[in-house]
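R.M. (postdoc): so does anyone remember the format we settled on? I'll just put the structure tokens first.
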């Protein structure tokens, strides 16, 4: 039976954590860089999909809906492995960074697109008409009037997606991208101790907890406004 001391030695060895700290710090930096890459990519792709979904032609809307459904249904890990290990069979060699960027662009873009589409649909049509009455061109009305209101209406959902995207960056370890989880597993394999994995979990918590609190406050405020 595992004693408390055995548990501490296996999972909470601060000496091992101190030894692993340099590579854990490198991994955390990679996680932050990866997040700064994939979140804006997903938002831009989602915005493009949301705007295209408002096209009048069904020949645009139907293929777009199929595209969104496909990449929302595919598990991100499967999509990442498919891009990283599958594209070389088509003669396209991609780096780990490129594979992660492509996979997250496809997956998170579909999710952000649905959130932003719902936001655009929540803005009364009269807002666009008022923008035109003020002399704004259609793209100006969309950028200056409709989009800000749409983003505000779905802000909790957008932040929730951002939170999920940052957590999903941990799957980049399967393609040997040296983010936080990959580095923690490397340290664990050398020390034969789970303490680096626990340290990585604590780092994820400290990184994401402020966003979780902001999201909870926004959700409570939205619930109170109903």
């Amino acid at each position: 039976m595992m004693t408390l001391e055995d548990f501490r030695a296996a999972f909470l060895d601060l000496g091992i954590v101190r030894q692993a700290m340099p590579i854990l710090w490198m991994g955390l930096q990679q996680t932050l860089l990866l997040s700064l890459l994939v979140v804006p990519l997903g938002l831009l792709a989602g915005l493009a999909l949301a705007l295209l979904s408002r096209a009048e032609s069904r020949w645009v809307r139907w293929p777009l809906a199929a595209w969104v459904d496909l990449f929302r249904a595919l598990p991100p890990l499967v999509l990442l492995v498919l891009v990283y290990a599958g594209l070389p069979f088509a003669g396209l060699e991609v780096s780990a960074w490129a594979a992660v960027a492509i996979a997250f662009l496809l997956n998170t873009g579909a999710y952000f697109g649905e959130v932003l589409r719902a936001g655009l649909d929540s803005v009364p049509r009269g807002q666009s008409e008022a923008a035109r009455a003020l002399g704004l061109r259609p793209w100006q009305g969309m950028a200056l009037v409709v989009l800000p209101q749409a983003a505000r209406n779905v802000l909790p959902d957008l932040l929730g997606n951002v939170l999920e995207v940052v957590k999903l960056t941990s799957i980049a370890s399967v393609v040997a991208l040296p983010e936080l989880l990959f580095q923690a597993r490397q340290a664990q394999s050398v020390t034969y101790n789970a303490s680096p994995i626990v340290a990585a979990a604590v780092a994820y918590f400290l990184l994401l907890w402020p966003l979780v609190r902001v999201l909870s406050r926004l959700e409570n405020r939205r619930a109170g406004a109903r």
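R.M.: ...and that's the designed sequence above, right after the tokens. Also worth knowing: The chain has ten helices and no strands. The radius of gyration is 22 Å.
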